Amino acid sequence: MFTATKPKDKLKHMLRFSKIKWISISLVSLLHLFFFVYALNHHNIYLADDSQEYLWQAYNLKHHDSWYGSDYNLPYNPYLQTRRPPLYGIFIFLVKSIYNSDYFVCFLQNILSIISLITGCLIAKRLKAKTNWLILPALLLFFPTQLIYANRIMSDVLFQFIIIMSVWFFTKYDESRKSKFLFLVSLFIALSALTKPVMYLFAPLFIAFFVWLYLKNKISVKRIGISFLPFITGLLLSFYNLNQTGYFHFSSGNNMLVYHYYSTSARFSGGETDFAKSDSVTTLAKSNSTNLIEFSENMSHSFYQIMKENPVRFTMLQFNGMIQFFIDHGRWDLESFFKTPVYNQTKGWKTAWSEKGFQGLTDYFSSFGILKLSYLVITLLINIGITFLFFKFLVSKKYDTSLRLFLFLITVYIVTVTGFVGGSRYRMALYPFLICSVLVFISKHKVGHSFKVNQK
Fold this sequence. Notes:
By secondary structure, the chain is mainly α. It contains 23 helices and no strands.
């Protein structure tokens, strides 16, 4: 006779890891603890304006019932009313309601980070990857961005957690075909847009994905309606912003596109000229605007003009950003965390080459020191390898097509909208899946007896 599994039994089964897996989890936790203690001692948990705007959101939620991202005692700026969606501000507000400390926020982010990484491994386990997880702390040593942003007042870890949970619940639906898991997938995709505004345009792709599931007889026609939750969420927030600012839009963050273009271009040309251009475009847009609508339209017009004036350079910078998304070694994150939070790289190896040729390159790389340079080179090579394995997994017909398509859509979308500023920080959203693909590869090819474990 069949006996239903109790919730406690399910929890025990989920936590029934082998000794080697608990060792791996412990090592990952120790790495997070080291970075947390460092941040606690050096107070380097804030990143320029971003962190302060999130903190103001949390403060204003408590005192003004608003997620406005600035000080109410200063002149009102509608741009900061809608630049950032509310979820991370709400997260900070709730956490600080328990214990009023920014470091407590970071502490809980470390826990979310560990859960996200473990969930990536659990997805690999669902794909029958019979490997131990010692590769996880080993790879994490060469992805310090994960550990750094777990200890910063930034939304990246929360965003990563939400994305990985959406995929986790999709694997649960694939296994059980229960509607509640499909609803949770849609809910977490909606929450991802409320965490980072770049995700709000994913809603149409998400609906299209559900239509594809229906055509493949994986869901009923009634369940397509579940996919409209992110779209409805976007509409509701846009109407709220209309009520607050008189402008129907999801986020004013798109006005940063011009800045992102010129800041990226500056690293190629090595000049302050591009930064000056960005400032002049923004100043001109403000001077010709009387409200947020006009300012946004002027900034959008300037961005489209950039595309038209030099489409080759625009395409080159976009393509470069997409490559950097996957292979960036995270030097900027390391420098800004262990040296100064205001660290800003305006010149790179391309600039050194353009100015002095081989001598410039020699001077540039020798300035790192042999240990740091070796670490960065190893990290770069590991990133290239992991990326190759990830895309190999995405095209492998041995694994569920719907899961691979869902991951592919999320990947292509995030990489594309990240655009010029692609880097290791943005790769965090996909990093648990990159780990998953490595575990799958190791298991499939039985790389060494040490990677074989009992999966009872």
